[in-house]
Amino acid sequence: MDALILQALNGLASASSLFLVASGLTVIFGVSRIVNFAHGSLYMLGAYIGWTLVTRFAGDGSAGPLGFWGGVLLAALAVGLIGVAIEVLLLRRLYRAPELFPLLATFGVLLIVQDLALWIWGPQDLLGPRAPGLRGAAELPLLGLRFPRYELFLIVLGPVVLGLLWLLFHRTRFGVLVRAATEDREMVGALGVDQRALFTGVFFLGATLAGLAGALQLPRESVNLHMDLAVIVEAFVVVVVGGLGSLGGAFLAALLIGELHAFGILVFPRITLVLVFLVMAVVLVLRPHGLLGAAPASAAPVASLSPAAPVIRPAPALLRRLGYAALTLAFALPPFLGDYALGVLADLAIFTLFATSLHFLMGPGGMASFGHAAYFGIGAYAAALLAHHLAAPMAAGIALAPIAAGLAGLGFGWFCVRLSGVYSAMLTLAFAQIAWSVAFQWVEVTGGDNGILGVWPDAWARDQLVFTYLVLALCTGAAFLLLRAVHAPFGYALRALRDSEPRAAAIGIPAVLVRWLAFAFAAAMAGIAGALFAYGRGSVFPTLLAIPRSVDALLMVLLGGVQTVTGPIWGALAYAGLSEQLVRATDHWRLVLGLAIVVLVLFFPEGLAGAARRWWEPRMDASSART
Amino acid sequence: MSSAAVSPPPPTLEARGLVRSFGGVRAVDGVSLVVHAGELLALIGPNGAGKTTCFNLIGGQLRPEAGTVRLAGEDITGLPPPRIFRAGVGRTFQITATFGSMTVRENVQMALLSAARRLFGLWRPAREAMRGEAEALLARVGMAEQANRACGVLAYGDLKRVELAVALAGAPRLLLMDEPTAGMAPAERGALMALVARLARESGIAVLFTEHDMDVVFGHADRVVVLDRGRVLAEGAPEAVRADPRVRAAYLGGMAA
Question: CB pairs below 8 Å between A and B: how many?
Fold first, then answer.
């Protein structure tokens, strides 16, 4: 009994810090409609900066000029200013862009901050000091239990912050404007309110809350470079379960998730993460807008607000011939290549298929997936498990991979396609994290961090030349099927839903079914790529499903151009062929990747193929007008 | 189903006692409408009278709290829009909604493919599918020459015509047109409504439309229903409605001017 009470109290303490992070995320989203992927980075920065301020100026725990509390508060304010800098320098330019772009930009910031933190504070975990005045345990009245004072402080802090935020939003002019902007941004602008100041203010508030939450973790756990992703995934869950933009919902959901963690560890120590996502799934099935989130005020159809995507036309004959020539070259070259070059060629083909499958979702589907590596990895693990546990031939592995990945896509996609853009993007990331944690934690089956070794092709395909041809043939075939699908009625139906969902529904296109099947289709195709990758490497590791792998796919699609059919092919070739070698060679590949994302989003949003099309499109229109 | 053998065929659209409120305000409060095949019924009323809400209740974009919608006798109340389309309802929107990444012809092909239940093809190009049918529909609305153009570059009146062709692609029994001529030049308005009237007569389509332009209403509607604050205020032939003092009062003289 006592253990249960202590565990419940532990849950309450985690809930408080979770709420601090999630409240900032939800407030920022409410006003700016931006899901800030970098919010976890702000939390991590709060912890690091707090550590520096407290330990440098306060000595070894003794009260320095700032003291512990001064250091924590100063860290929170510093992070608030960093949030302002992100808003002013980057996001302000993207408010009118399609919602995918701010998401990607903050993703880039996340990567940049990871590397900067590594550079400044180093890779080792940092241990923070204890909070003066709140050391040790306190006797709990009535219960006769002893419980750490600092945790008690956190338990009280959550409701206090909620109360202060409530006062801020209901009793101050700033707060009233924030609530008004959450409901109707255009109207607040039309009333002459300076939206820039309002947005910057909201970012300051949200970032400060994240920084405070991070700094307050110092006495509880060590500061490390994994804090950002760990907390952002949980904060996403809290915000989605509570309802985007709802503070009360975030508080409720934080309590729910905090307690779930506390008790989940007692009952299912290995699958707490999975448990959390199951609860999220149940909540979203019962209440699609979260516990306290409201459905959009008006259900009346509105015209799509995203800028019109360009008309997709068949590629001009010259370009098509060039494409076929490149393909012929790829098939003609292997006999003249060495093993290393053959390996690179096979990788290029695999990445092209991977990128093309993600593009099918993002381009025609208009759905952002931040966890596409899950399906790549599930395909790879399906093949590896089959080879490892059943000694199955390669053909069986390659056949099973798309089925396994497709089924995972059906399962995860069932939720993702029922939610709107940002909810959906957050879920894709969350599901990828589940898949990763299963691969990482289920050691008996997946080998955990050690992966599965000895996943080699059958004897007949073990020769690098034969294997390369096999990869080329399968990847070209699968990518070709995806490209055909874009131009086929299925791809058109997806695009119709993206362009105008009310119109598409009014001509009988079933939105959920079409998107769901598209999700599973793209997942299955990524699964093929994953299986081939596994056989090519001879092994699989959890990193195949990890976030950097998903970012690879995103970057390839973005680099090629989301709104062009062949964009992912050019993107994969450019990215995997040139930058991967360079980027992986430096220690700061996250910094390079993050900067690349930011630069692409800001200055090159159409990608390579988009820029190329802008060059040829005028000629196309001229020639089609004649026919 | 009526058991009397001699009863006339049910009207194309029969809405009975539709109710829908938003935050305690009854936007539509017991509205009943009947539209017969080949008939143009105009739904008019001041801003906020509940016209668009009525449309969305019939078209499935909103679910009524009470009341029934029957299409040629079949109950379609509260079905989702795709199923209402398949039951035989085509609609155009107050703010034009077309597929911006497709050409004019492809917009119509999309609707034809959906009507033919051919949405899930993965191999054959949609561009070649049902092309002749799409061009025939575009010819009917006078848009044949613009088939290859992107919808994004069309004039507003032309977009309305494309929407009409898209709505016709499902061979509808009922056409719902929310402000079909809003934003068009006066000459264009008359031409579009004359076209709609001709199509309705030729194919026996029932047309329910809302409109602010009284010239369009009285020039083309067979019957008029006036809504005010969610209720039917008056109903009848255009001339009778125009003369109704309650209608004049509701519009505060706006119509008489």
Answer: 147
